[in-house]
Amino acid sequence: MASLLEMKEIFRNADAVCFDVDSTVIREEGIDELAKFCGVGDAVAEMTRRAMGGTVTFKAALTARLGLIRPSYEQVQKLISDNPPQLTPGIRELVSRLHQRGVQVFLVSGGFQSIVEHVASQLNIPTANVFANRLKFYFNGEYAGFDETQPTAESGGKGKVITQLKEQFHFQKVVMIGDGATDMEACPPADCFIGFGGNVIRKQVKEKAKWYITHFDELLKELEER
């Protein structure tokens, strides 16, 4: 297992940095915001708590929550326009600095493609670098399920995405940053995991992550060390 010093070295020399989105890059949990917007906030928040506790599989929790919300295409678009996701302080500067250094930045999320792509556009991250779940709609815009073939629809999906990126781009050092257990589980194949507690602190992640931060300024300072 890498020491904290070794992890900092990996981060400073990373080929790619993968960020979780909900409660990491943005302040909210996208699915909970969508549920509130569709009038089923409390019921879905309770399901989210159970899912975070690891008592049900990610796919089962996602299926159940979306079955309750049943968001239409119009509702998703209206959520983005009326209540756009709030970027976490410091993320814009950190992503910009990584880009300046020639580091590839990816958003790897259990959230929804349309919301995550909106976030990516705010950070100048290309759409091709977004991995998230895709909602499906009928021709009339009604909810028709989600694309179950996406790796992010399953437990362990973030690790699968990182393996895929390593194979495709021959990255030597990949860093995963996130607030949740699904982010921590992606290391390995990620070479380093940085736990983030700036928006919400997950006890399990705080206790187990060797490198745990509460503000992205801490990572910006690391990059300035060189």
UniProtKB/TrEMBL annotation:
Cross-referenced Pfam families: Hydrolase (PF00702)
Function: Catalyzes the last irreversible step in the biosynthesis of L-serine from carbohydrates, the dephosphorylation of O-phospho-L-serine to L-serine. L-serine can then be used in protein synthesis, to produce other amino acids, in nucleotide metabolism or in glutathione synthesis, or can be racemized to D-serine, a neuromodulator. May also act on O-phospho-D-serine.
UniProt keyword terms in alphabetical order: Amino-acid biosynthesis, Hydrolase, Magnesium, Metal-binding, Serine biosynthesis
GO cellular component: cytoplasm
GO MF annotation: an example: L-phosphoserine phosphatase activity
Gene3D superfamilies cross-referenced by the UniProt entry: HAD superfamily/HAD-like, Phosphoserine phosphatase, domain 2
Positions annotated as active site in the UniProt record: 20 (nucleophile), 22 (proton donor)
Pathway(s) it belongs to: Amino-acid biosynthesis; L-serine biosynthesis; L-serine from 3-phospho-D-glycerate: step 3/3
GO BP: L-serine biosynthetic process
Protein name: Phosphoserine phosphatase
Cofactor: Mg(2+)
Catalytic activity: O-phospho-D-serine + H2O = D-serine + phosphate; O-phospho-L-serine + H2O = L-serine + phosphate
Enzyme class: hydrolase
Domain of life, source organism: Eukaryota
UniProt-listed Enzyme Commission number(s): 3.1.3.3
Species this protein is from: Scopus umbretta (Hammerkop)
Family: Belongs to the HAD-like hydrolase superfamily. SerB family.
TM region positions: none
